[in-house]
Amino acid sequence: MREPTLEERQAxxxxxxxxxxxxxxxxxxxxxxxxxxxxxxxxMEADAPIGFDxxxxxxxxxxxxxxxxEVWAEPMTAVAALYKVSxxxxxxxxxxxxxxxxxxxxxxxxxxxxEPERPNLPQPRPGEILEWLKGEGVPRMTDLxxxxxKNDNQTANRSxxxxxxxxxxxxxxxxxxxxxxxxxxxxxxxxxRNLVDILVSKPTLPYALNFAxxxxxxxxxxxxxxxxxxxxxxxRRPELKLSYSKIDYYNREPWYPARASIxxxxxxxxxxxxxxxxxxxxxxxxxxxxxxxARVSASPTKRKSRYAYIQTTQKQFMPSGRLSVRAYSPYGxxxxxxxxxxxxxxxxxxxxxxxxxxxxxxxxxxxMRREEARKxxxxxxxxxxxxxxxxxxxxxxxxxxxxxxxxxQQLISIVxxxxxxxxxxxxxxxxxxxxxxxxxxxxxxxxxxxxxxRAMLGGADTLAQFRKWxxxxxx
Length: 475
Prior knowledge:
Layout: H1 6-22, H2 25-43, H3 54-58, E1 62-63, H4 64-71, H5 76-82, H6 87-96, H7 106-111, E2 131-132, H8 143-148, H9 152-156, H10 174-178, E3 181-182, E4 188-189, E5 198-199, H11 205-221, E6 225-228, E7 261-265, E8 268-285, E9 293-295, E10 314-328, E11 337-341, H12 352-435, H13 440-457, H14 462-467
Parallel strand pairs: 5-8
Antiparallel strand pairs: 1-2, 3-4, 6-7, 7-8, 8-9, 8-10, 10-11
C-alpha cells in the first residue's frame, strides 16, 4: 500500500479541521475521541513498561505515535487548535511524551523546496509516559528536559553544569511546601498533594530539595526515569513508620502525597521517600503556637520574677535535621523496603551512587519475588477454585435436601388436612341423617346451618389440595 505524501497528509488534516469547526461542540468531541481511539488502537506500543494500562490509551488518550504524526503533518499552531490548547502547551506535551517536534523554521524550509531532517520517534524508555489525556497536568519544561534533546556530544561534558539542572519533580515546588501548615512537631503539611514525596521540617526543606534533585538527576543520567505514578498504574505507597521513634504525636504520618514518586530501573518500579528522621529532645508545649512543641534553648535565659509562670518541659521526638531515604516496592504482592540514613547532616549526599547501585542490584530480587508472588497467587487461585466448586457442590446438596424435606412436609400437611376434613364430613353426614328424622321446620333449619358450616370449613376436595403440592424438583 502506497504511503501518503506530505501534501496529502496536510490536505487530510485541513479537511478534518474544517469539519471539526463546522460541527457542534458535542459532536466534535465525539469525533475527535473516535479518531484518537482508532489511531491509538493501531499504534499502541507493544513493549509497554510494568504498570501501563493499555486500555486507558484506547479510551480517548493521545498516544505518542498519534502526536508524532500530527505535529509533523501540520504546524504546531494548527494541531494545538485541534485540541483547543496553545502551541506552547502542546510543545510541553511533546516533551512530556518524549516526542520530537519540528524546530523553528522547519515549515519555511519545507515550503521553499528544502527537505529538513525529520528525526524518528524514539523508543520509550521504561517508565516514560506513553499517552496524554487532555485535562491531566503536564510538567513545565525544565533544564533537564531541554538537555535531553541535545546531542550526545553536548550532554557528555556536563559534570560542571549538572548541579544547575532542576528535575521536573522538584522544580518550583518549594513555595507549595512552605505555603502549607505544620504538624505538632514542625513537619510541613502542604495543602497541595501532587508533590514529590518529601516529609521534612521547614529549616530542612532547602537541603532536602537539593538532595532530591541531585538524587533524581543521578538516576536520570543512568537511564532510569523518575516521575509521579499515574492513577491508572495502581501503585501503592506504604505508610512511613519508624521502628525506633515516633514521627509525630499520634505516631502517624503528618502528610503524604496523592501520588507516589517512582523510579523505573529497567522494568522494575521502585517507590522513593525522602524524610527527616527524629530525635528525642527536651521541649515545651504551647497550644496557641503554629507548632505545638518547641525545643528548649540550650542558652541560659534571664532570671524571671519569683511570681512568673514556670513552664514545664517534657521529652518529645522532634525533627533532627538529618535526612533519610526510603526505597520500597510499590507492587501490592511484593514486600520490600530499604533505608539509607545519615548520622551527620550532609553525609547522605555522598551515598547517592550507593543508593543508585543498591536499587540496580535489587532488580533481580524484585523480579524473583514478583514471579514467586505470581506463582503463589496462581496456586491460591486454583485452591480457591477447588474450594468454590466444593462449596457449590455442598450448597447444591443442601438445597436438594431442604427441597426434599419441604416437599415431604407439604405432602404430609395435605394428607393430614384431608384426614381432618374427612372427619368433619363424617360428622356432617351423621348430623344430616339425624336431622332427617326431625319435623319439617326443624329439619330445614338444621340443613341450612349444616350448609353454612360446610362452606366455612371448605370441604375435602382432594384434587384441589393435591394440585398445591410441589415436588423436590419444583421447590
